[in-house]
Every structure is written in C-alpha cells, then in structure tokens.
Amino acid sequence: MKILVTGGAGFIGSAVVRLAIAQGHQVVNLDALTYAACLDNVASVADHPNYAFEQVDIRDRAGLDTVFAKHTPDAVMHPPAAVPYRPVPRCPVGTSWHVGFYQGHSGRLRYRNTLAQPSPRPYLPPHPRGHL
Q: What are the tens digits of pLDDT across the range 37-66?
C-alpha cells in the first residue's frame, strides 16, 4: 500500500513513516518543514526505495494536487500535532476539508486522522496492534 503521511518529519509522523517502511509499505512523507520538523527523524529510511519526501504545506491546494498526481497514494495518514502557540488545520472543519480533498483524488482513497471522531466516511481500519 502507498501511504501519504502528513507531517512525516515531525516526532509522531516520523515514527509512522519508519514503521510503515519497516512493514513493507511505500511512503510519501509530506511535510512543510516548519519549526518542529527534522529530516534527521527519517534519515534511517531516506534512501529506501519505498520512501519519497515532498516539502509541501497541507494548506497548499496546488501543491497537494501535484503530490497526489505524482504519487497517487492509496491512503492518507494525518497524525496529530502538538502546536501550543499557533493554529493548525487539524480541527473538524480542516479535517472535513482534507477528507473531501483526498476523496476527490481517488474514490478508493482511505483517510485516517487519529484525532477524528467516528464517521461514515472511509477511514483506514485500526491495525490489530494499534499501528497503522
């Protein structure tokens, strides 16, 4: 499965990226590389053939269109972020926008936001051990 991970250079996102690569998935790491991001977090997988990095802000619609056209992911993982001093688009409205955007790129695309409430939209099912 090809998984696009938002914030994949951050603390939580990089753990998701490394785990997904270790489990044999293809991963597209989408990160704007702001204050909390560090590519050293994914250095261990940076040269892996199943890994790709794209420096794009999730609020950049044109950038997201380009990434989706180039990589055509099967699933999107949108891990939480701890940002105490500035707003990020991970609220219900932002999540709803992202789900609609991702669904517009592929009717079969699955989306997972660990902060989202249960919904009739197609989310990735939880992994048996709590991963991916």
A: 899 999 999 999 999 999 998 888 889 889
Report the helix count and the strand count for the chain, using DSSP H and E.
3, 5
The predicted model scores a pTM of: 0.69
pLDDT in tens, 29-42: 999 998 888 999 99
Sheet architecture: strand order including 26-30: 51-54, 26-30, 2-6, 75-77, 110-112
> Could you tell me if 109 and 103 are in contact, meaning their C-beta atoms sit under 8 angstroms apart?
yes
Half-sphere exposure of 2 (CA within 13 A, CB side): 17
Domains and CATH numbers, the chain: 2-112 (3.40.50.720)
**How far apart are the C-alpha atoms of 89 and 116, rounded to whole Å?**
13
Is residue 6 within a helix (H) or strand (E), and if so which, with residue range? strand 2-6
Q: Is the pLDDT of residue 92 over 70?
A: no
SS3 content of the chain, % helix, strand, coil (to 5): 30, 15, 55
**Structure-derived torsion over alpha carbons of residues 32, 11, 48, 109, reported in degrees to the nearest 10:** -70
